User: What shape does this take?
Amino acid sequence: MVDHYCNPGPIQYDDVGLNSRTETIAVRDLWEENVKQQIRSICYAINNQTMFADHKHLLQGALSALQASKDVLTSIPQTQEHVRRLSEF
Assistant: This one.
């Protein structure tokens, strides 16, 4: 049997295991960062497309989609902190 944990338990956050992540967590984090980057790219594209022209339909569609996303966040109790951060913008 091979032990794949260098520091199981709370000490992993304060010792040798501080900067290590499992493959599963690394893949999940990479996927999440990729999705966040796609969202940022879409928002920048919308901003650029509507900067000097009248595109009310595009802005309304984007706002509607973002509000729907915010509604999903508020429907999950564990994400109340994220909703608070969103409302600060």
The chain is about 60% helix and 0% strand. Residues 5 and 22 are 9 Å apart (CA to CA). The longest helix spans residues 23-50. The chain has two domains: 22-53, 55-89.
